[in-house]
Each structure stands twice: as C-alpha cells, then as structure tokens.
UniProtKB/TrEMBL annotation:
Ranges in a coiled coil: 269-296
Gene behind the chain: infB
Membership in a protein family: Belongs to the TRAFAC class translation factor GTPase superfamily. Classic translation factor GTPase family. IF-2 subfamily.
Segments forming domain Tr-type G: 14-183
Protein name: Translation initiation factor IF-2
Chain's role: One of the essential components for the initiation of protein synthesis. Protects formylmethionyl-tRNA from spontaneous hydrolysis and promotes its binding to the 30S ribosomal subunits. Also involved in the hydrolysis of GTP during the formation of the 70S ribosomal complex.
UniProt-annotated stretches for the region G-domain: 17-165
Residues of the whole record sequence present: 217 to 512 of 730
Source organism (scientific name): Citroniella saccharovorans
C-alpha cells in the first residue's frame, strides 16, 4: 500500500511504547492493568472519569506509555488474524500459584512471531501457593530464560491485588522502551490501526485509532477498509477533545460513514472524495470476493 510507505531514518523521532497485557484467563490481566492505571492517576485526573476507548496513556516520571486494553480472547484472535501488529511490548501475566497455561503459550508464540518484547509479570505473589521458581522453570521450556538465571527475559514478581511490584514493572517497561528506541515520523499523513469501533446511538460510528505514523488531525479525510469520512471530533482517553494525535497515541474519532473493522488500518488522504473512491473500490473488491466464494 503506497499510503503506508516507509519513512526515512532521519525523519524518525522517539514515540511512546505501546504495551499489551496478556496471559491466561484469571491470571490477573485486568487486575494488573487496573493497578498500573491507579498508581499513575495524577491529582488533576483523579475524580475525572476515564473514558473507555480501548487504550490508555499513562505518565511515568514524565514519560508516556500507552496500554492497550486486553482484548477478549475472540477479539484478540480476530485482530491477530488480520495481522494487526500494533504492540511493542507484551506484559505476560502468569499466576505464581498456577503456571504456564494454553493462553500463556499462545501469548508467548504470538509475541515472538511478531517480534514483540516480553516482560513476564509473575502475579499473585501474595498467595500462599505462590512458587515463582516453578514459573521460571516453565518459562525456560518456552525459550524464555529469566535474567537471574542467566538469560535475557525480564521477570517481575507482583501482586496486582496488593499493588506490590507495580512500580518495578513500570520501570522495566521504561527500560525496555529506552533500549528499543521506538520511533516514528510525526510529520506525514497519518496511518493508524482501528483498535475498537462501534455504532453510538447519538454520535454515529465511533472508532478508536492508534496512530502509528504521522499526526492525525481534526478535519483529516480518512479511509479504513470500506469506510471513509472526515474527522469531525477527536477525543483522548480522558475524554478530552483534542485537535491532533501523534504516533502511539490512541484517540477516539467521529465522522466516519460506517463502523470500521477492528484491526484494519486507517489512512489519511488528501480529501474526502479520494477517501470515498478508495472505500468504494474496497467495497467492490469485497463484493467480488463474496461472489467468487459462492461460485466455488
Ligand atoms: P484476568 O482474567 O486475567 O483478567 O484476571 P483478573 O484480573 O480478572 O483476576 C482473576 C482473579 O484473580 C480475580 O478474582 C482477582 O481478584 C484475582 N487476582 C488478580 N490478581 C491477584 C493477586 O495479585 N493476588 C490475588 N490473591 N488475587 C489476584
């Protein structure tokens, strides 16, 4: 896709890391994400209602980190099937009183295949049956050798419930981000990925976009799959109206003709007419494929 061209090295500048918390059901993904969010709520934000847009931006000592909401298992599989590769770092949550389970293995494989860094959070350390050494042993069987065992996999013992180890986990995320030097060019037409979309009764189609390249701006003409539009409102994860969003920043946008698909790319183009044309072509293509399938 020519709209998604590669940038020159000299045009790239640092961007915040994008993190997803993954792991087996009940190992504490939601609790970990909540603990992270709660430790980082500043006074000015406290009392404000965090908007559910599918992602949140957290400030750690002046540095931004973006957390994607842990998708439900099905949504996650669907995103992956579309090849959405939008995360930089996986926080792999493993319950210390349990062990590596099927969805843990799936998360490991997916992260490895996508070239995503893995930080292991050994959760539920407060529980009586917690056995971090057993978890570490199991990790080695999947090629993740803990640092304290001579490997290069970072493991952090935490208790999401008791809010312990969360600062250490955040420190490790920042350290990995610093080493990896995630970068993007903010000075170009934006390209992003739809991470959530729905039809709102009052507002019409609303979609959360994770900007990956360029700067997404109010008034931009956009196309995503068969859907086109012009951004007529944009909100950050605190529900605040914003005029632009740089790489790694999630924003909810209004102004699309229809509900786009999660996992699809979204591109800024010169004007609405071009956006409509591209969307129409995509629609025709989709119809043709449907007919072909029926013929076979
Ligand atoms: P998810 O399915 O991976 O999102 O897991 P949840 O965050 O919903 O947690 C599953 C259960 O484990 C809930 O009952 C949590 O209260 C509990 N839990 C999560 N973290 C901890 C922890 O650190 N210690 C203890 N004792 N329980 C926890």
């Amino acid at each position: 896709e020519s709209l998604d061209y590669e940038d020159k090295e000299e045009d790239l500048i640092p961007r915040p890391p994008v993190v997803t918390v993954m792991g087996h059901v009940d190992h504490g993904k939601t609790s970990t994400l909540d603990a992270i969010r709660n430790t980082r709520v500043t006074k000015s934000e406290a009392g404000g209602i965090t908007q559910h847009i599918g992602a949140s931006t957290i400030n750690i000592n002046g540095q931004k980190v973006v957390f994607l909401d842990t998708p439900g298992h099905e949504a996650f599989t669907a995103m992956r099937a579309r090849g959405a590769n939008i995360t930089d770092i996986t926080v792999l949550v493993v319950a210390a009183d349990d062990g590596i389970m099927p969805q843990t293995v799936e998360a490991i494989n997916h992260s490895k295949n996508a070239g995503v860094e893995i930080i292991v959070a050994i959760n539920k350390m407060d529980k009586e049956g917690a056995n971090p050494d057993r978890i570490k042993q199991e990790l080695t069987e999947y090629g993740l050798v803990p640092e304290d065992w001579g490997g290069d996999t970072i493991t952090v013992p935490i208790s999401a419930k008791k809010n312990e180890g969360i600062d250490e986990l955040l420190e490790m995320i920042l350290m990995v981000a610093e080493m990896q030097e995630y970068k993007a060019n903010p000075n170009r037409k934006a390209v992003g990925t739809i991470i959530e979309a729905k039809l709102d009764k009052g507002k019409g189609p609303v979609a959360t976009v994770l900007v990956q390249k360029g700067t997404l701006k109010f008034g931009d003409a956009v196309v995503s799959g068969c859907v086109s539009g012009k951004i007529r409102a944009m909100f950050d994860d605190k529900g605040k109206s914003v005029k632009k969003a740089k790489p790694s920043i999630p924003v909810q946008i209004l102004g699309l003709s229809d509900v786009p698909e999660s996992g699809d790319k979204i591109y800024v183009v010169d004007d609405e007419k071009i956006a409509r044309n591209i969307a129409q072509k995509e629609q025709d293509k989709a119809k043709e494929e449907k007919v072909k399938k029926q013929e076979n």
